[in-house]
From TrEMBL:
Pfam families, per the entry: AsnC_trans_reg (PF01037)
Upper lineage: Bacteria, Pseudomonadati, Pseudomonadota, Betaproteobacteria, Burkholderiales
Single GO MF descriptor: DNA binding
Superkingdom of origin: Bacteria
Span of domain Transcription regulator AsnC/Lrp ligand binding: 4-54
InterPro entries: Dimeric_a/b-barrel, Tscrpt_reg_AsnC/Lrp_C
Keywords associated with the record: DNA-binding
Protein name, as recorded: DNA-binding Lrp family transcriptional regulator
Species of origin: Paracidovorax wautersii
This protein's record includes keyword DNA-binding: yes
Membrane-spanning residues: none
C-alpha cells in the first residue's frame, strides 16, 4: 500500500487473514509519533495497536536452492 511507503516510521507491512487486514511494524521514538501514525492509518479504517515488549525468538529462514 502506497500509504505505508510514504511513512518513514513503517518498517514492514504484512497483509494478513483474520480480523485485522495488515500487521504494520513501526519504529517509534516518542508517543506522539505513534499517535501520528495511528491517526494517518485511522483515516482508512479501524486501527488496533499492540506494543512489542520483547522478541525472545528470532530465527533467520534459509531457503534451499
Amino acid at each position: 500500500m502506497q500509504l505505508f511507503q510514504q511513512m518513514p516510521e513503517v518498517l514492514e507491512a504484512d497483509r494478513v487473514t483474520g480480523e485485522d487486514c495488515f500487521i504494520v511494524r513501526c519504529a517509534i521514538a516518542q508517543p506522539g509519533d505513534l499517535e501520528r501514525v495511528v491517526d494517518a492509518l485511522a483515516a482508512h479504517g479501524g486501527v488496533t495497536t499492540s506494543l512489542v515488549l520483547s522478541s525472545p525468538v528470532r530465527k533467520a529462514v534459509t531457503v534451499p536452492l
